[in-house]
Amino acid sequence: MHVMGIVGWKNSGKTTLVVELVRILTGKGFKVATVKHAHHEFDIDQPGKDSYRHREAGATDVIVASGARWAQVHELRDETEPELNDLLPKVSPDIDIVLVEGFKRDPHAKIEVVPPDFDGELLTARDLHVVAVASDTDDLPPVRVPVLKRSDPAQVAAFILGHLGLTAD
Is the distance from CB of 100 to CB of 5 less than 8 angstroms? Predict the structure, then answer.
């Protein structure tokens, strides 16, 4: 399993790029998984649904399955928030590429997404795990890594495949 992170500050366009990359990479025949970090409380379940009621009653793990998909919801309760290395083993073993959105402090290869109006410090200035920057800004300060066009997700996908040593069938 190969891992590539897509990182950046809030509202930098990470999710949009991840969605485009998933479409391109799966279109090339790769099995792709995503892992996304959320900085806020989220819920993929809905109040009133049976699975929600199971968790509300105190179940730590709830698995919902159908003929189309299955999902597991794990309540942390008093546990600490998992790190990326805790989550990667939960990805199916037949996945070729895991695109990780967020987890910018974890030590894995990452592409930093920089929006045109960005005026802060680039992650690549301090994080040696950033292997490229994806941006369309003309005002990007000099960086030690390749700069890719954010508006050209095919170029970003090609970089990822090359960096991971993968070739499409």
Answer: yes
